[in-house]
Amino acid sequence: MTDFDVYLxxxxxxxxLLGLPVTERDWVVVGATPAQLHxxxxxxxxxxxxxxLHPQSKEEYALARTERKVGAGYHGFNFNADPSVTLExxxxxxxxxxxxxARRPGGPLVDPFAGREDLKARLLRHxxxxxAEDPLRVLRVARFAARYHWLGFxxxxxxxxxxxxxxxxxxxxxxxxxxxWKETEKALGEPDPQVYFQVLEDCGALQxxxxxxxxxxxxxxxxxxxxxxxxxxxQFLALKAAADMDLPLAARYAVMVHDLGKGLTPEAxxxxxxxxxxxxxxxxxxxxxxxxxxxxxxxxxxxxxxxHTHAHRALTLRSNTVxxxxxxxxxxxxxxRLPLFLGACEADARGRTGFADRDYPQRRFLLGAxxxxxxxxxxxxxxxxxxxxxxxxxxxxxxxQAIREYQQTWQKSH
Length: 414
Fold this sequence. Notes:
The chain is α+β, with helices and mostly antiparallel strands. Helix content is 51%, strand content 8%. The longest helix is centred in the C-terminal third of the chain and has 26 residues, at 388-413.
């Protein structure tokens, strides 16, 4: 028997009320000290405030706390986890009303901020004006909008106004790159990742956090190939296509950065975008470094920006150019990258008004070309006396020839 109270809080309560699977559970402990939890067998893991792991379930249990803004940025808070802090006080510091509900096991819903009503109204609404004290909440709300867009959720106008206030304040610049990437990584995995960036644009945060993407708004493309015309609109359609195709994170990130170069096209050249691939490769690399994106994703993104238009033209490329594309991805040593790249290219092709269901044979063609190149018998070439540079040149010629023969077979069967 303990002399403190435990409540299930946050996402587990929210998703249960929505009828969605509950994937993880967080708990808040009211009326306890760290010493009491430690004595009960809980393991402390929190750095900024007292959080413990349950001795059996290993789920997180946090002491009820309040917070007070004392400085700039996400870390500019003092926390009070005194046993006198009430459940309602703890819920009051949370970001959205739908995340500020709690329930004791077997007990009634505790909902001091009408979160259940906002669930029914499909509203993402802030709990209190203190929302505007934490710049990370701009990203969190945008991510929740991406997660629940399919259910009809949208950001409440007064909450969007506070997000605009945060964007104007300059506090977004205090967010660590790791925090921005963590929220973006989660958002890319949601059913509607494009909504994340749309909400950031709506509140003025896209320019602050992703200026390369913001620069695409208002940049036209040829209507014959892009009926949606606007490049950022195309970007959003391509991200939605990537989600609908259930592409993995790396491919979705590649879609996110694939057309950044069009934001640097001189207006005099619009709606054409000659050499946007090379410009895009540099921008994608810079964005990945700035956000400290994992290296494998960063490399794939930059390569996709550079080579995606080659993939679109794959059926008409010369055999040596096809090999040049495959070699750029190091397909023989890193074969896992080509399917990711081609998934991103297919999402790009489908991410156009009226093209969502269009077939993309280039994907099958290039996978087959890579397989043909991989089957070149290197030992046989070495047996002919080739070595050193001569062997390398012979291998390359043989791979190009294998691709040429594959192209001929493809053309006959298609």
